[in-house]
Amino acid sequence: MPVLVGKRAPSFRAAAVIGTQVEEEFSLDRYLGKRYVLFFFWPSDFSSVCPTELLAFQAKLAEFEERGVAVVGCSTDSVNVHKAWLRTPRSEGGIEGVTYPLVADSTMTISANYDVLAGHFDYSETGEMVFIGAPVAYRGLFLIDRDGIVRHQLVNDRPLGRRISDALRMVDALRHLEEHGETCPADWEADG
């Protein structure tokens, strides 16, 4: 898997659901020079582990925003599937109440560019393009600085959920480095 750390985050324009609205030309470029971005991928809507993560990001959203971080999620599901999932009550496996942008990567190009696609395109014996594997994303997480550079990358297999507080710690470490020029050793935690 290629490492994106230290490189410009792959750019894209895609439809995203933000609250109850669809934005057809959503791009992370809107945050350049203004905010950090925590861009994460999940395998599929209406699954067992994925809503727990999206709801956990929502529960910590104020903490990310206090640190100047925009949280943006992405999966290979369509805008319509995202909208349905957002309308589904939490008690029924939905993510009702999630307010951060959910990007629809139905072409799988964003997942491929971030190298988190759990399969690949190939050609059949007859020369037709076919997809090999599961056309969903691994659980990728990318911390992007205000200049658009990936500073942290983590990719889990689909069954392995993430710990959202770890993402907050990485944001704190990056901010500490930028503000004080000091590195952050293992298990470093922000004061207070």
TrEMBL record:
<dbReference type="InterPro" id="IPR000866">
    <property type="entry name" value="AhpC/TSA"/>
</dbReference>
<protein>
    <recommendedName>
        <fullName>Thioredoxin peroxidase</fullName>
    </recommendedName>
</protein>
<dbReference type="InterPro" id="IPR050217">
    <property type="entry name" value="Peroxiredoxin"/>
</dbReference>
<dbReference type="InterPro" id="IPR036249">
    <property type="entry name" value="Thioredoxin-like_sf"/>
</dbReference>
<dbReference type="Pfam" id="PF00578">
    <property type="entry name" value="AhpC-TSA"/>
</dbReference>
<dbReference type="GO" id="GO:0008379">
    <property type="term" value="F:thioredoxin peroxidase activity"/>
</dbReference>
<dbReference type="GO" id="GO:0045454">
    <property type="term" value="P:cell redox homeostasis"/>
</dbReference>
<dbReference type="GO" id="GO:0033554">
    <property type="term" value="P:cellular response to stress"/>
</dbReference>
<dbReference type="GO" id="GO:0042744">
    <property type="term" value="P:hydrogen peroxide catabolic process"/>
</dbReference>
<dbReference type="InterPro" id="IPR013766">
    <property type="entry name" value="Thioredoxin_domain"/>
</dbReference>
<keyword id="KW-0560">Oxidoreductase</keyword>
<dbReference type="InterPro" id="IPR024706">
    <property type="entry name" value="Peroxiredoxin_AhpC-typ"/>
</dbReference>
<comment type="similarity">
    <text>Belongs to the peroxiredoxin family. AhpC/Prx1 subfamily.</text>
</comment>
<dbReference type="GO" id="GO:0006979">
    <property type="term" value="P:response to oxidative stress"/>
</dbReference>
<dbReference type="GO" id="GO:0005829">
    <property type="term" value="C:cytosol"/>
</dbReference>
<feature type="active site" description="Cysteine sulfenic acid (-SOH) intermediate; for peroxidase activity">
    <location>
        <position position="50"/>
    </location>
</feature>
<feature type="domain" description="Thioredoxin">
    <location>
        <begin position="3"/>
        <end position="176"/>
    </location>
</feature>
<comment type="function">
    <text>Thiol-specific peroxidase that catalyzes the reduction of hydrogen peroxide and organic hydroperoxides to water and alcohols, respectively. Plays a role in cell protection against oxidative stress by detoxifying peroxides.</text>
</comment>
